[in-house]
Amino acid sequence: MSTIPSYTDLTRDISRNLNPLRTHNADVMQGFGALSKAAMAAGALDEKTKELIAMAIGVANRCDGCLGFHAKALVRLGATPEEFREMLGVAVYMGGGPSLMYAANALAAFEEFSTAQG
User: Fold this and answer.
1) pLDDT band at 117, cuts 50/70/90?
2) Helix (H, G, I), strand (E, B) or coil at 8
3) Strand, coil or helix: what is 43?
4) Of 50, 72, 103, 117, which has the fewest CB atoms closer than 10 Å, so is most exposed?
5) 51 in Cβ contact with 40 (< 8 Å)
6) pLDDT tens-place string over residues 52-73
7) Which residues contact 49 (CB under 8 A, 6 or more apart)?
8) Rounded distance between C-alpha atoms, residue 87 and residue 84, angstroms
């Protein structure tokens, strides 16, 4: 059983908990935001492909917040369940057993946001 009540709640709580950093470390947060915008902008790779890569890294690094934010983005970008599961296969290949455990959580996050958008 997951210790995370829901990825919707998790992403909302993380966003709220970042508010002090937005206030007291505004330059750092603005810099991170600019880095994110530049890295995720469409180029040779489209935004959905970049989000799939980001999710795979989140799985391999076992980052719960990453699972939530990138699952939400992938649903918004129209990723299919088939694309998502295929990406999880690569993440597990690269990260081994611990990534397999997080792949299950990533799938739960994707399904949660897909149902909410539904």
Assistant:
1) confident
2) helix
3) coil
4) 117
5) yes
6) 999 999 999 999 999 999 999 9
7) none
8) 5
Residues with Cβ < 8 Å from 109, sequence gap 6 or more?
A: 7, 67, 68, 71, 72
- Judged by DSSP in three states, 89 sits in helix
Q: Report pLDDT for 42.
A: 93
Tokens of 73: 């983005």
Q: What is the rounded (10 degree) CA torsion for 66, 92, 99, 81?
A: 50
Sign, CA dihedral 33-34-37-40, equals: negative
Positive or negative torsion for Cα 101, 104, 108, 114: positive
